[in-house]
Amino acid sequence: MGKPLLNVSELTVDFKTKRGLLTAISNISLTIKPSETICIVGESGSGKSVTSKAIMRLIDDENGVISKGSIQLEDQDLNLLTKRDLNRIRGKKIAMIFQEPSSAFDPVFTIGDQIVETIVKHLKLSKKEAWQRGIELLKKVGLSEPVIRMKQYPNELSGGMLQRAMIAMALSCNPDLLIADEPTTALDVTIQSQIIELLNSLKKEFHMAVLLITHDLGVAAQLADRIVVMYAGTIVEEGKVEQIFSQPHHPYTSGLLQSIPKLDAKKETKLFSIEGTIPSLSNMPSGCRFHPRCPFATEKCRLESPPLKNIDGQQSACWHTSELINHENKFHNESQLGLTQETIPIQQEVTEQEPLFEVRELSKYYPIKHSHKTIKAVDHVSLKIYKGETFGLVGESGSGKSTFGRTLLQLEKPSDGEVLFDGQSLAAFNHRELRQKRREMQVIFQDPYGSLDPKWTIGSIIAEPLKTHLKKQSKKEIIAAVKELMVKVGLEPEWIDRHPHEFSGGQRQRIGIARAMAANPSFVLADEAVSALDVSVQAQIINLLKELQQSSGLTYLFIGHNLNVVRHISDRIGVMYLGKIVEIASSDELFENPLHPYTSGLIKSIPSIEKIGTHQIDTLKGEIPSPSDPPSGCAFRTRCPFATELCHKEVPTLKEYQTAHFAACHYAEKRKID
Fold this sequence. Notes:
The protein is an alpha/beta fold. Helix content is about 35%, strand content about 20%. It contains 23 helices and 24 strands. An eight-stranded mixed β-sheet has the order 6-7-8-3-9-10-12-11, with helices on both faces. Strands 18-19-20-15-21-22-24-23 form an eight-stranded mixed β-sheet, sandwiched between helices. It has a four-stranded antiparallel β-sheet with strand order 2-1-4-5, with helices on one face. α15 packs across α16. It is globular. About 45% of the residues are buried.
């Protein structure tokens, strides 16, 4: 075995708070060898990001302190270095890619200025040499027109382009170790797959080690050599990627893997989820920290903390690993024989093919100042959403999904077209009538915290729609209704006087759902409602939405970029590209027989645990064009491997090629036959 590049030994990190010291991570140890990729996985609050920041000593600026242990980079203990010495190492020996690329760039300087500054500081090149190196790096990470990109400001680049530019800056000084903290979380599936492919290729070319932080196990499967599983500030399992995915040795790891929506999962059953939430730093359970959520917990688990032990080449901190392995093998065998039910069945059948929404040639254009051009965010979209169904809407950022949702509900005034709700044109209502009609149309937003007033209690937040739309209710009746709603969405009624900041992300999303359900709507727009959540919390929210649909007869428009999730929850799916619908079909039909090349590209780009250790990624090349300057003919032709002269000249129309399967492609008929 070669000497490790990084050796973290018994690391404990505390944070100074008004209530005293809070321990964020406890006695964790891990090593990374040169050219190796280690992936740390776990739910939010498990200590993943704190670990990465501790290695970089960034916690020093966040009231954090390393109270125990060492961080050895080759022959240097980073914990003993002065700030001046650390600055010499950061960027040169260790570099970091952050989750939010916009936070890594100064908005008042160009991309080139910031890359050049890093190169000049560490490599002592001239500014001219550093500028040329910056151009080469931007080209290497796949950015088109690198000379132009060097002169642009961060706000002029899309999310995917900015992520690539940040990777270029991180690689500018050939670091030995690259730390990537959730580098793909906020990205579309296509850009995500491109970044995974890029990291894999750059790792080989630069012979660098990678420490990847993620809660997306599909990403981990395609990047990692070894996986470290963290829970509540401790390491609970470690092993090779093939070992972890084929035979988890800890119940928490097993729960995370089971929570992933599978492409072949039965839609009429619930997703598996780990009950409960990760404990807060101020209220850690005794014994094994996972025991309050563990199906195998015993009295010993409640009293004694299990050590990390080597079992069959894997490290696991569990008193009952052998029972778990036997259970997993039995479950696997019964599943193959069809003897097990994954979960309790949910009846999700659309009994009527009667449209709740009928959209006719809907368009939303935004004029560009000082220009004759317009941004065609939504461009002549026509579709129907039937009563009792979930209509999924997918597509990359910039495709027009969210704008379509807002325009559908008249939160944005349409530029053209008509929207009928239950047979009535929404444009015909005046402001007062539309306000009354909104009782039947509610929204669940992507960011649960940003959509909740931090000054209000959750009781007041959930009660607001009741007071607005059901004014005759007494205060006592409203409180009773709020508590009933809280129980319905899985919140404790005694929490009614708490504020949003006292809840986890999943709990805040439940508050948002309770608020949306308060007015007893018939339709709910869920706009990226689970995209920011951990896989287990995500499963809980999906199950909740399906249960509420069953009990209340709800109709959903579910907008998302996680295609596995959208497939599981949706009856039908529409695919948007550059403001237009390019395909509509039932969810199973769409995934099994896509007729549009864009749909096919999206599906192939999904990070999958079935691709463990192959490091082979199917990616949809390029990025979505600017909606202010779309290509002629078929908007997708600039990225389509099948484009012809006809695609260049003529816009394809949305046609029905099979029963209820529509596509806007000149060659859909040929793809159907193939």
